[in-house]
Amino acid sequence: MKKKFGLGFFALAAYVLCLLVTFPADRAFDLLRRYVDLSPAKVWVAGLEGTVWSGRAAELLVGGVACRKVEWSCQPLALLRGRLRTALRMQIESGAAHGVLSLGRREVVLEAVEANLPAALLARPFAVFGIGAGGMLSANLERLILREGRLRALDGKVVWSGALLTATQEAVLGDLKAELGTVEQMMQGKITDSGGPLQAMINLRLDQEGAYEVKGSLGARDRKRSAIYETLRLLGRPDKDGNIAVALAGKLPPFSYGIF
């Protein structure tokens, strides 16, 4: 009796897996819209092809961010561990990104991420304060782990090439680099310059509960560059060498990664 039950269970599991592998992506999206608010203002998609398991979308608009040539390919063995794991590749506005996304119980993991994105894209939320950005952000992340709304691990490197800020005026900053790592459950990072107009030496710390600490200094390598100097003055009073001491601490609220 137990043997028959076991065979029946595996047969049912195989049938369900077969449905997932062959179920058309466009039909799945239409079905999902019956139960989740996927209004065009939140999510808009066109040109869906393939299946839920492996497919592509010609265009995708999420939260005002335009993506094109979105491709996904799920990895079946992850299901045996109770996770959904898929390789993703897409163009994001004038940039591109690819990596591996893994979803589990109250956990989101990104691995092997390579992205090249316009800094202006990430600066959009600050436009209401009159702050803009230019240049390109190149990220190479080994892993990023979000668990129960908290950042648990972050390892990799981010380079801001041709960094530019616009606030009271346009300030060319040069190239900046952030090196990130997780040591004994403490995320640490260092932001440095590459010898350009902005001098930067910032140390970052973030623990598992969201408590952060930012310390270091910023300065204009050439004080005759008034645009950088005036922009830095928004952060505080310069010392006798023209540098601004940076000292921030606080606690981040839990992060919500649901788009719906």
Would you spell out the secondary-structure blueprint of this structure?
Layout: H1 2-22, H2 25-33, E1 43-50, E2 54-62, E3 65-74, E4 84-92, E5 95-104, E6 107-118, H3 119-123, E7 132-147, E8 150-166, E9 170-183, E10 186-193, E11 198-206, E12 211-220, H4 226-233, E13 243-251
Antiparallel strand pairs: 1-2, 2-3, 3-4, 4-5, 5-6, 6-7, 7-8, 8-9, 9-10, 10-11, 11-12, 12-13
Number of helical elements? 4
What's the total number of strands? 13
Q: Quote the average pLDDT.
A: 86
H and E order: HHEEEEEEHEEEEEEHE
Reported for the largest beta sheet, the result is:
13 strands, antiparallel
Structure commentary:
This protein has about 260 residues and is an alpha+beta fold. The protein has a domain at about 105-250. It contains four helices and 13 strands. The protein has helices spanning about 1-20, 25-35, 120-125, 225-235; strands at about 45-50, 55-60, 65-75, 85-90, 95-105, 105-120, 130-145, 150-165, 170-185, 185-195, 200-205, 210-220, 245-250. Strands 1-2-3-4-5-6-7-8-9-10-11-12-13 form a 13-stranded antiparallel sheet. The chain is elongated and about 70 Å long. The relative contact order is 0.08. The mean pLDDT is about 85.
Summarize the structure.
The protein has 260 residues and is α+β, with helices and mostly antiparallel strands.
Main features:
54% strand; 260 residues; 4 helices
